[in-house]
Amino acid sequence: MTTLLEQIKEYKEQFKKKAPAEKQELMKRATEELRASGTAQGLKAGEKAPDFTLPDAAGKKVTLSEELKNGPVILTFYRGGWCPYCNLELKAYQRELDAINEAGANLIAVSPETPDASLSTKEKNELDFLVLSDEGGNAGKAYDLVFDMPDYLIEVYKDSGLDVAAHNGNDDWRLPKPATFVIGQNGVILFAEVDSDYTKRTDPKKVVSVVQNLNK
């Protein structure tokens, strides 16, 4: 089985071959501007993880602090089920789910999409872990991940037939940076990785190693 990072590399190569050069340039520009802005840096290891209560794909409320009673939590924020990089990442986590559970940890994935959209993502990718809906992005904001998409990038997405705001059930064109945290049972962040480049993702095997080492 190829790794997540190998799959992402392959997808990016295909995208470069197929997507118009102007579209690629605008998307690259948006990433560079976001990085330079210093916006949404994300919480760091050693900081307290903000608690939240969010609905899962079936509408059931899930509270982070309650999940932490059962073990450490791997918390991953993704942009939405419309994002191919997110789907690759979610499926990679599914492949590691047994190892995560064996290490005594729980896995929670969060996006700003509506519960209906989250359900579609969960079913499409055959995910057996919690997929939560952060409508309005309050959890993403608490973890310092949310940013406003620039107008020219919104037009690129619209031209591609993608209405991010509709997926999120509002009129806001805001997204979280993809981010991964490992949260200890005491509610402190033990591991944090955030990148302004949405094509860069944390290898789930790296995160599994973190939770496995908690037991040593």
UniProtKB/TrEMBL annotation:
CDD domains registered for this protein in UniProt: PRX_like2
Keyword list, A-Z: Antioxidant, Disulfide bond, Oxidoreductase, Peroxidase, Redox-active center
Domain Thioredoxin: 43-216
Reaction equation(s) it catalyzes: a hydroperoxide + [thioredoxin]-dithiol = an alcohol + [thioredoxin]-disulfide + H2O
Family: Belongs to the peroxiredoxin family. BCP/PrxQ subfamily.
PANTHER family referenced in this protein's UniProt entry, alphabetically: SLL1159 PROTEIN, THIOREDOXIN-DEPENDENT PEROXIDE REDUCTASE
Protein name as annotated: thioredoxin-dependent peroxiredoxin
Originating organism: Metabacillus indicus (Bacillus indicus)
